[in-house]
Each structure stands twice: as C-alpha cells, then as structure tokens.
Amino acid sequence: MIRDQIIAYQTLVRREVLRFLRIWVQTLLPPVITQTLYFVIFGSFIGSRIGDVHGVSYMAFIVPGLVMMAVINSSYSNVVSSFFSAKFQRCIEELLVSPTADIVILLGYITGGILRGLIVGLLVFIVSVFFARPVICHFVLIVFFIFLTAVVFALAGLLNAIFAKKFDDISIFPTFILVPLTYLGGVFYSIRSLPRFWQNLSQLNPILYMVNGFRYGFYGFSDVSVSFSVLILVFLVLLLTGLNLFFLRKGTGLKT
Amino acid sequence: MKALHIKNLSKTYANGTQALDHVSLTVEAGDFFALLGANGAGKTTLIGILTGLVIKSSGEVRIFEQSIESEFSRIKKMVGVVPQEMNFNIFEKVQDILMTQAGYYGIPRKQAVHRAEELLHRLGLWEQRYKVSRQLSGGMKRRLMIARALMHQPKLLILDEPTAGVDVELRHGMWDYLKQLNQQGITILLTTHYLEEVEQMCRHAAMIKEGRLVKCDKVDNLLKIIDKEPFILTVDEVRNTNRLKGYAVSVVDRHTMKVELDKRHLHAFIRDLEKNGMSLQDIRPQGHRLERLFLQLLREDEMAG
Questions:
Q1: Which residues of A touch B (CB under 8 A)?
Q2: Chain B contacts of A97, Cβ < 8 Å?
Q3: A51, A66, A40: which is closest to A186 by C-alpha?
Q4: Number of CB atoms found within 10 A of residue A250's CB
Q5: ipTM score
Q6: Terminus-to-terminus CA distance in chain A, angstroms?
Q7: Which residue is closest to B11 within chain A, CA to CA?
Q8: Stretch 246-305 of chain B: residues touching chain A, C-beta under 8 Å
Q9: Whether A110 contacts A155, CB under 8 Å
C-alpha cells in the first residue's frame, strides 16, 4: 500500500515538473526577467544614490529579498494554477477516483511548486551575481528559509485553488494580498528606516520574517528575531498543511 | 459474490435537491447491469457516490463486500470509471494520460508501459499515442477514457453513457468490446439512453426516476411486461382495414400499415389480413421495446404515486 502511494507521489511530481518545464517560457523565464529589471532599476540606477544598508551596498541588500520574492510568487502560482486548471478541466477527477491518499495529493502538488520556486530562486540568484557580490554567512539558514518559504506558499496556493470556483478567484489573493505584503515585507528597505508606527505594523506581515531570516543567512543581520522567524515559518507550514488536509478530506470544492 | 450492494442510498445536495431517495439494489459479480433513467434521474449521482466524487447523505454502499466508508482506497483499486464527460488534461499526450493513470493506482512504470501499449492497440489508439488529447476525435476521446479506466485492470467497470454522441459503427464496436470484457469476468455497470444497448448487452437493468428505483429485474423479464408490440407490415395494397375489427391498426401509406398486438396473436392477424384480400410481403417489429417499457413503467409509477 505504501509502495503504491510512493509511485502515485512520483507520478504526480513527474507530471507537475514536466508541466512547468514544458512551458518554461511562461513559468521560469518571466520571474528571472522581472527580477533582473529590479536589479537594474532599483539596484543600479536608484541604488547607486542610496547609501549602504546595515553596512552592505544597497544592491547586495536587495538580493535576498528579490530571490525570496521570486520564490514566493513561483511556488504559489505553480500550485494554484496547476491545481485549479485540473479542477477546471475536471482531470482532478482522475486523482479523486484513484486510491491516491489526500496527503499524497498534497505532497505531489506542493513538491511541484517548491521545485519551481527553488529553480526560479536559483536562477535569480545566479543573475544577481552579475550585479552584486552577495556573501553567504549561514548556508544552513539560507536553505532552511528558502525551502520552508517555498513550502508555505505552495501550501497557500493549494488552499487558494481548493476554494477557487473561477479564474478570478486565483488572481484575487496574489494581486490584492500577496503582492502588497511582499513589497511591504522589507524586500527593498530595512524597516528600521520606517517611523515607529509603520515598523510595528510591518511586524504583522509574515513575509517580513521570511525575507529577514533569509537575508540573515547571507549577511548576518536582521530587523527581526531570527528564531522567531523560524517559529513563524514552522507554524505556517503546520497550519496550512492541516487546513489543506482538512479541506481535501472534506472534499471542499472537489466533491459534492 | 456481490459486486455491488446498495441499501437505502440517499443524496440531497447542498441546494436541497434530492438526487437519490432510498435506492437499494444489488449487482452480482460478473453481471452486465444497466441503470436507466431520464436526464436528472440520479444515475450520475449514483455513479459519483460509487467512485468517491459525490458524498452520500445516508445509506450503505458495499463494493465486493467492502464498505466504501472504511475500505474506500482498497475498493477504488477494483473500480474503473468512464465518466459521461471528457475529463482528461487537454494538453497531455494520449500515452502520458494512461501512464499517469497507472501511476495513481501504484502501477510501476515498466508494467504500465506494456499495459498502455496493449490497450492502445486494442482500442485503436496506437497511432494517436503521441497526440495531445484535444486533437482526438470524439470517438477516440471516448475510447481513450475506456483505455484509461482499464489501466489498473478493475473488477468492476462503471460507464456513464459511454456511447452518447458516438456514431453507429463505433457504438457497435464498443458493444463488442464491452461484451468481451464482461466475458473475461469484469462486472459492468452502465448508464445509457440507448435502450437498444440494454437489450443487446445487459442481463439486468434498474430504472430510476427522480432519484427513486422504479424497477430492477432481468432484462428478459422486463421485456415480458410489455403485452403488446408494434409491427410494421408491407402488403400489396392496403384495403378494407375497417374489417380488421379488434386490432389496433393504423395506415402509414398505400402499402404500409402498423399494428400493435400481442405476439401470440400474430398468426391470427396475418390470417385475417389475407382473408380480407391483402397479400403480406414483409413484417417486422418496430423495435424500441425497452423504450416503451420504460415509458410504461414511468406512467405506472406516476399513477401509483
């Protein structure tokens, strides 16, 4: 039985990976181009007029945030669009009538999202080397933060897709919540440069902890407590896994 | 052994529609069973419950003696389903669709490759194996759905209107294939609008109306219920029909008549026909017997209800 579930998991992952590789022009290339533009505009043109942040150049400062931003968007959009389009085309029924366990469906889809997120993140990081000289302070923390962030947003994408009934529903959350939170999550600035009120408000944004934890892995400084950031990530992974499993088991948006 | 045992199965959707109302029926292993009913009668809901796409409101469902409540993942390995509407990824290639399906059922790739090859040949899709599914014709898509449902070698094959919109030649080809599968021991449960399909293939049939079971019996027994059958007659020339008293005769044209009568009275009728100066040249049953039975049973049910 476990062997069957492992084969089902491999099948799902294979299908998900082939899907985003087949359409790499839509899935891998755009975030790399967008982030390159950020490097050029914010890093080179505007960044040259901004002084060092926490002792590193502005260009180097924004590298971890831009990598993180690409990972967040890619992990999220991979799962939300793949799962919703399976629902829309009704090919999700192939999975639902099969003995594939709910946890395997969850793991299969999020693995696809995580892999796309990490590949895009790596590509953006490679591009960043042409603009800045990022240093690596704590390699394990870098891997931990990038991986768990990809997991969190792949899970969030799945939750969005489970509830989505039409294509609008899969763009509302990314457009109105995810993008603002990412931009306000300390990708381009240190929250210490903000007035006290905005600093406190920013601390309610979970993406701030992910970006800062990840940046800490590179340069060894963070605007927030790194151990608290770890806790938040672990908490979000557990919460979103639980919610997804609950709704998959219940058949929300999938069964009538 | 019972392939399927349903007891008091009911389903009420969130919007209050009652799709199934205490339906009970049994399908023996190896049977070829038809589920008949008009659109919206509850057939697809019933199939949905058997395959896990619809959650039942109450009642009991056992497939090969195992309850769907406790053993569903084990049961799912024994059930193959061909849905009414196409539900595969339109961007995936034919072969990939089959391979993916096998993977979902835990079949290793090596084994799945052979199985897919065999089914693609058997269902005439071998030449199309590298085509994306949306490029297939309607008939090919339907055959692909059958191939997909057979990838894991199910013991119970459920088909929801498998020949809807399929041309006559293909339909007959499909019937032959389904008969072969049934002879190999696969229990088949199908819903259909083509009552001829039921007469041709099925041993048992159940009729559903507005979520309730109206009748469930052997197809032969169901056909016996009909007391009269329409026959089309060709004669040299239609004449003196007013002398054929006691027969429900209607004239179609100068050489053709239609009569509804009990088969046992056919000889007497032909005798009376010739007595009245008409020479019989051809006689044939009009067919669609089940169709009429279906309507008759529905009418009876309405009157009883």
A1: 1, 3-5, 7-8, 10-12, 14-15, 86, 89-91, 93-101, 251, 255-256
A2: 51-53, 76, 79, 81
A3: A66
A4: 13
A5: 0.86
A6: 27
A7: A256
A8: none
A9: yes
Task: Count Cα atoms within 13 angstroms, Cβ side, for B5.
Answer: 8
Residues in chain B, pLDDT under 70: 165, 225-228, 287-292, 295-296, 298-305
- Spatial separation of the C-alpha atoms in residues B63 and B58, rounded to whole Å: 16
Find, in chain B, the residue whose alpha carbon is nearest to that of A4: B106
- Convert the pLDDT of each residue in B50-102 to its tens digit: 998 999 999 999 999 888 888 888 899 999 999 988 888 888 999 999 999 99
- Tokens coding A7: 């084969």
| Residues facing residue B156 across a β-bridge | B79, B187
List, edge to edge, every strand of the sheet that includes B66-67.
B18-28, B2-12, B58-63, B66-67
Residue A183 is given by DSSP the state: H
Strands ordered across the beta sheet of B248-251: B248-251, B256-261, B229-235, B280-285
Q: Which helix (H) or strand (E) holds B146?
A: helix B138-150
**Type and span of the H or E element at B205:** strand B204-209
Q: How many CB atoms lie within 10 A of CB A214?
A: 27
pTM of the predicted protein model:
0.83
Instruction: Kindly report, residue by residue over A199-231, the tens digit of the pLDDT.
Output: 888 888 999 999 999 999 998 888 889 999 999
Q: Which residues of B touch A91 (CB under 8 A)?
A: 87-89
Amino acid occupying residue B274: E
The three-class DSSP label of residue A41 is: helix
